[in-house]
Amino acid sequence: METTAKDHIIETLDDLDDNGLKRFKDKLGETAFQGRKISRGKLQNAGTVDVATLLISTYTKTHAVQNTIAVLTAIKEVALAEELQKKDWSRGKWWSSFWSALRGPAPGSVDPESSGCAVHS
User: Fold this and answer.
1) Which of 11, 52, 89, 115 is most exposed, with the fewest beta carbons within 10 Å of its own?
2) Contact between residue 38 and residue 29 where contact means Cβ atoms under 8 Å apart
3) Within a 13 Å sphere around the CA of 30, how many CA atoms are in the beta-carbon half?
4) In this predicted model, what pLDDT tens digit does every residue of 19-48 receive, in sequence order?
5) Are 72 and 102 spatial neighbours (Cβ–Cβ below 8 Å)?
6) Is residue 85 exposed (0-12), middle (13-18) or buried (19+ Cβ within 10 Å)?
7) pTM for this structure?
8) d(Cα 48, Cα 15) in Å, to the nearest integer?
């Protein structure tokens, strides 16, 4: 059976410790992507499978992965973001341009607005 985008997101989120997952959900809940945002209420008690399901149902598979990478990078989990980006299913020209825009000039530092998302404080 082929590994899906949801599987890759779950595997990546499973690599976060409890505090890292909490930071991920907090940043995800305050960030709008493609004009949509997942409410903090839905994320509060969600585990990694639930978060992956919310990401895909809200943003589609392709955007769910992009948004996961953007949030991981924003919370300084760059190694996990890079690992997710390198998964086999993610091949395509849009990845190289997306990743270049996301990473910007300084490795590990991201301006969320340049990646197509708006962070609300």
Assistant:
1) 89
2) yes
3) 11
4) 999 999 999 999 999 899 999 999 999 999
5) no
6) buried
7) 0.73
8) 10
Which pLDDT belongs to residue 103?
60
The answer to whether the beta carbons of residues 43 and 51 sit under 8 Å apart is yes
- CA dist., res. 61 & res. 92, Å (int): 14
Rounded distance between C-alpha atoms, residue 85 and residue 69, angstroms: 7
pLDDT tens digits, one per residue of 47-98: 999 999 999 999 998 899 999 999 999 999 999 999 998 874 544 544 555 5
SS3 content of the chain, % helix, strand, coil (to 5): 65, 5, 25
CA separation, residue 51 to residues 43, 47, 100, 104 (Å): 7, 6, 26, 27
Residue type, 37: K
- DSSP H or E stretch at residue 114: none
Dmax (CA) for the chain in angstroms is: 41
